[in-house]
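seq as requested:
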Amino acid sequence: MRAAQRRAGFTLVEVLITLAILSVIMILLVSAFTGASRTRGALISRGRDFRQVLIAMDRIGTDLQGAFSSAKHSDTGLTYKEDKLSGSPAATLAFTLFQIPSVGDSYPPSSIVKVVYFPKVGTDGAHIELHRRQSALPFIENRIPVKEALITDRLKGFRAEFYDGSEWQKEWPAGRSLASLPKKVAITIIDSRGLEYRREIALHLSGQDSVIQSGNRPGSSR
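struct tokens:
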């Protein structure tokens, strides 16, 4: 009878061993869930950075495809200045372009705008942001407010190269006419992980300065 009563319960050693096993299992489960959560967070961050880079590339590429210059207005030409912010290459790119007027604005629409892509130091001080500034009616004195928007953030760099028809140049205009345009522009964006994305954009109106006189697209009515 006494032996049966002793076998009905657990000894302290058995309880301690059981708790130790359960603790190990719980630690393994917590580690697995923590690792999965970190992996999920990293994938979300990478996906966000990749989408931002694609959107920025598309926006810059669309703008550059409409870029033009005129010998009558030297300030229409493309200009480029490379600097460094937070130790990263940070360029400023400015040019004039034709675009579809925005009829929803509170001021008269204009098909000719001046666009500047420029960097700023990010809020964390370790990355840079790429901003876009747009001014309408750039050839006349006006009081139309300048539009400015954040294009992408958390970058490690933004720079460009220019194809003049024979070779790629790292500066522009670099001794050329202020109204000249390159044949192509290669945009490089470096994301937060240091990965570089490069895209080449052809400037369709390059070399057509003489046909752009009145602010209309070539072939359009004047």
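The chain has two helices and ten strands.
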